[in-house]
Design a protein that fits this description.
about 100 residues; mainly beta; two-stranded antiparallel ribbon; 8 strands
Length: about 100
């Protein structure tokens, strides 16, 4: 990826929205919620603490993460919808 996040930010490809419910009902495109999970595509170098020490981002490329529903900034880069999050907006790494 030619897009490199700065500081403690990560670039995430959001998972696809569910098209059916657990009961098998097909959802209209307007009623689909954006998933709060995705895959990390790129990671920044981290941030500096008050003493000038580098604190690395706690995730790596390829990690599947859970983040807040309204977190981050949505961007479109080369036709692809992406999300840029700060590392403190990441709630968990999904262990498969």
């Amino acid at each position: 990826m030619n897009l490199k996040p700065l500081g403690d930010r990560v670039i995430v490809k959001r998972d696809e929205a569910e098209t059916t419910t657990a009961a098998g009902l097909i959802l209209a495109s307007t009623s689909k919620e954006k998933p709060a999970m995705g895959t990390v595509l790129a990671v920044g170098e981290g941030r500096l603490d008050k003493d000038g020490n580098l604190i690395p981002v706690p995730v790596k490329e390829g990690d599947h993460i859970l983040f807040g529903k309204f977190g981050g900034a949505e961007v479109t880069y080369k036709g692809e919808d992406l999300l840029i999050l700060r590392s403190d907006e990441i709630l968990a790494v999904v262990a498969d």
